[in-house]
Amino acid sequence: MVSLSEALETITDGTSLMYGGFGGIGSPADLIAEIMNKGVRDLALIGNDAGFPDAGIGRLITNGQVKSLITSHIGSNPVAGQQMMDGTLTIEFFPQGILAEKIRAGGVGLPGIIVDVGMGTIVEDGKQKVKLNGGTYLVEPALTADVGIVYAKRADTYGNLIFDKTARNLNPLVAMACEVTIVEVEELVPVGELDPEMIVTPGIYVDYIVQRNGGETR
Asked: For residue 54, how many other CB atoms are within 10 A of its CB?
């Protein structure tokens, strides 16, 4: 386990940052708050949504620290929508399932996936296509990032992770898909105390563990 400041030495201006959470549920709130306080700029975010203006990953957007976002929707954060319209925030949208699969592909070392969503629309403009089993598909590159921030309910000192119900969401995928993975955990226990059948993410994917200190209630 390390301090928040030690873990966040890996996040600097221009870092590509992938994050867990779904509408704030399962977001690493303390890590996000510390990133905001650190004042890094021009972050390239990848995650399910834009959070809320004052909660979750949305706090970084509201604070003007984000230059781009790859996501599935921004409906819960009107600040993100306004920044997109103003041209200060570049946003690329993907259907939620495709976004999750692009992240999973990055985590398991695949270069990309093939999809049929968007065929016959402007989505296919400029994208590589392949023919397979009589159909034509778009090639979607896998997604990875410099740093991933993840929230887990319990962890042991090796980094094995257990998630809490729907807070599991994209967190296990993010943990696999980044050069450096930082986990914010509520409860840290010695190796051997976690039920192996409950472990979702093995410690091999985890680089840093920080203890949650309150965080948000959302």
From this structure: 12
pTM: 0.94
**Which token pair is 65?**
């620290």
pLDDT in tens, 57-112: 999 999 999 999 999 999 999 999 999 999 999 999 999 999 999 999 999 999 99
Structure tokens, 81: 């929508």
Q: What is the DSSP string of the chain?
A: ---HHHHGGG--TT-EEEE--BTTBT--HHHHHHHHHHT--SEEEESSB--BTTBTTHHHHHTT-EEEEEESB-TT-HHHHHHHHHTSSEEEE--HHHHHHHHHHHHHT-SEEEE-TTTTSGGGTT--EEEETTEEEEEEE---EEEEEEEEEEEETT--EE--GGGGTTHHHHHHSEEEEEEEEEEEE-TT-S-GGG--B-GGG--EEEE--S----
User: Which tens digit of pLDDT belongs to each residue from 103-128?
Assistant: 999 999 999 999 999 998 998 899 99
Q: 64 is written with which tokens?
A: 């003007």
CA pair distance 133, 190, nearest whole angstrom: 50
Distance, in Å, from the CA atom of 4 to the CA atom of 179, rounded to the nearest integer, reads 18
Cα separation of 64 and 53, whole Å? 11
